Amino acid sequence: MKKIKFLLIAMMAMMTATNFVACGDDDDDAPVSNMQRYQNEVDAAVKAQKKNSKAILLVAFGSTWQQAYDAFDLTREEYQKAFPGYDVYLSFSSAICINRAMAAENTAARSFYEPKYWLEAFGRVQYSEIIVQSMQVIPGEEFSRVVNAMKDFGNNSNGDLDDEYMSKVVLKLGMPLMYAQTDATTLASALDVNFSKYAKQGAMLFMGHGNPDEYDTYKANVRYTQLEEALQAINKNYFVGTVDMADNYKVQVHNRMVEAGLTSGKVFCAPLMSIAGDHAHNDMAGDDDEWEDAMATQTEDEAEDVSWKKYFGHLNYDIVENPYYTDNGTDALVKGLLEYKNVRDIYVSHTKNAETVDFYHSMYPEE
Fold this sequence. Notes:
Blueprint: H1 2-22, H2 34-49, E1 54-60, H3 66-82, E2 86-92, H4 95-102, H5 115-125, E3 129-134, H6 141-154, H7 163-168, E4 170-174, H8 181-199, E5 202-208, H9 222-232, E6 238-242, H10 250-259, E7 265-271, H11 278-284, H12 291-297, H13 300-303, H14 308-314, E8 317-319, H15 341-352, E9 355-356
Parallel strand pairs: 1-2, 1-3, 3-4, 5-6, 5-7, 7-8
Antiparallel strand pairs: 4-9
Helix pairs in contact: 2-5, 5-6, 8-9
């Protein structure tokens, strides 16, 4: 009873404090929404960092891993060197990753904010040219969020930017890593430089993310199939699977390996994602091992609780964990694509070839 009484008193105190702030006579005392607070913080950051008349905004899905932050920071530094006439900024499209980063879930607190806040801030300081570079691997659901943020900015959805400025600003879009089929071939060549020594020893598996069927309206998932075809043209030991693309989970990857005669031997796994975060460290290289449930049905719903490492380890393959599953040197395989210089170079080339955004056709590749 005392505890209940205490809670009631505490609740009344909170309500009183809230009403006091909300009902103040001075407008300055009115509460500030999170959206306005975020915009204020981004506005301040852009004003403090603006040195040039042009800007590049790198937009990633996000992460809460320090390894990922290091990869993003390295990429931003390289962009600053590659584009000396531009101010370079970094944004996350995932609200969950943004909130967890602010809450210092796995490392020191950092603020990344959504693209809409950065674009609005760019408009307020009136950058003459803005390039938004998608750091996604495929032109899927997350890429569509990038394009839609640009569309809202281009349409001045907040209605507070100068009309004359909006009529003149140059807005360009840098495409994802595998936007077109030719990009899959380019990436295959880069991956072979980094992973050929493993493919010569056994099966070299890449784990991408993929889109669920209901979201795969952007010709995105086909890029994984095209990448595997391009890689196998170089070495038949390369395979590409995902965690979220129907008919291309690790179960189907194993089926293709068996069809190719690879029923035993060494298996190496690497994430086909821009950074190494939860999926890489847990779904691929983690210790989740509900093997009996997985074998009962051999469906991905059950096999999902078995990491790639454990799954293939149960299937007579030799998974060599050291040094391949620890980040202790150049041979560590749990590394995001942005940790490889030749892959970062592909992103940079996409930025250099960025074209004026076409909100429909940019989202729907023609090949």
